[in-house]
Automatic annotation (TrEMBL):
UniProt record similarity statement: Belongs to the enoyl-CoA hydratase/isomerase family.
Alphabetical keyword list: Isomerase, Peroxisome
InterPro entries the record matches: ClpP/crotonase-like_dom_sf (IPR029045), ECH/Chromodomain_protein (IPR051053), Enoyl-CoA_hydra/iso (IPR001753), Enoyl-CoA_hydra_C (IPR014748)
SUPFAM superfamilies in UniProt: ClpP/crotonase (SSF52096)
Keyword Isomerase: yes
Principal subcellular localization: other
Compartments where found: Peroxisome
GO molecular function, one term: delta(3)-delta(2)-enoyl-CoA isomerase activity
Protein name: Enoyl-CoA hydratase
Length: 254
């Protein structure tokens, strides 16, 4: 199973469990994530959601083989269902990041409430490097959280950066030893789970409500462009180059 769900008191842990592919997300995995977030919303006994990756990686982003097949990018595509659920989750979402967090592996963190990362974690958003554009409302949220130039450096160049830099950018709370990050994140999640749920929900909603409509709109706006760009020759070259284990050659494109 590529997604593992575990309950521990009020904490529902979602573990990405496709370690041989660095937890890259397929359409089926997005669907399961979306459904799990929806179930968590409805189940009053779930107080907090904890996201983590198994096998030493958090998430290598969208599965590039799925991208090669020009996947469903309709309004109700699994990836969009997931992004809408996590971005509007009424309950706290905690993330524990070890290893790589690429593409949506990083941008989903912008929707989490508490993010803890291992000192070995590596973040990147190589959308432009793949001939694509930002998603998950990262084009709106990253400049807000990190400042325009820092966001531009990460979103335009797409180069990897470490957990300390992610703290400086404002979307990681704390850096821990790799051996400690999961336990620490779980302990923080349990702390939240022991607090009054209605108070948590209201506090989160008050912090998020001013931006909620803009975030929802930007997710859809980005997705429209993303869907078109997935089929364009620049992206096809980038995906093929990844599987050929060579550098992409964009020189023939205007
Ligand atoms: N989609 C599909 N397969 C992926 C993948 C992805 N996003 N990321 C990694 N994999 C696969 C690799 O093809 C490899 O498979 P193989 O063993 O069958 O050859 C396996 O996972 C391990 O990856 P590898 O590249 O050997 O690990 P690494 O530690 O050297 O590098 C990454 C890890 C994540 C930096 C690198 O795999 C990578 O850049 N992946 C692509 C990330 C990406 O562009 N995601 C989309 C963002 S929009």
């Amino acid at each position: 199973m590529d997604i593992l769900i575990q309950r521990d008191g009020g904490v529902l842990t979602i573990a990405l469990n496709r370690p041989d592919k660095k937890n890259a997300l397929t359409a089926a995995m997005y669907q399961e994530l979306a459904d799990t977030f929806f179930e968590a919303e409805k189940d009053a006994s779930v107080r907090v959601v904890l996201l983590r990756g198994n096998g030493g990686a958090f998430c290598a982003g969208n599965d590039l083989e799925d991208f090669m097949k020009a996947p469903n990018t309709d309004h109700d595509a699994p990836v969009l269902q997931f992004l809408r659920r996590i971005s509007s989750a009424p309950k706290p979402v905690v993330a524990a990041v070890t290893g790589v967090a690429v593409g949506v592996g990083t941008t989903m963190l912008l929707h989490c409430d508490l993010v803890y990362a291992a000192s070995t974690a590596r973040f990147s958003m190589p959308f432009v490097q793949l001939g694509l554009c930002p998603e998950a409302a990262s084009s709106l949220l990253l400049p807000r959280v990190a400042g325009y130039q820092r966001a531009a450096e990460k979103l335009l160049l797409g180069e990897a950066f470490d957990a300390q830099e992610a703290v400086g950018m404002g979307f990681v709370n704390r850096v821990l030893d790799a051996a400690e990050v999961d336990a620490f994140a779980l302990a923080q999640a349990h702390k939240l789970a022991s607090l009054p749920a209605s108070s948590l929900r209201l506090s989160k909603s008050l912090m998020k409500s001013a931006d909620a409509a803009a975030v929802a709109h930007r997710i859809d706006e980005e997705a429209g462009h993303f869907g078109t760009m997935l089929k364009a020759p620049e992206a096809r070259e980038a995906f093929q180059a990844f599987f050929d284990k060579r550098k992409p050659d964009f020189s023939r494109f205007d």
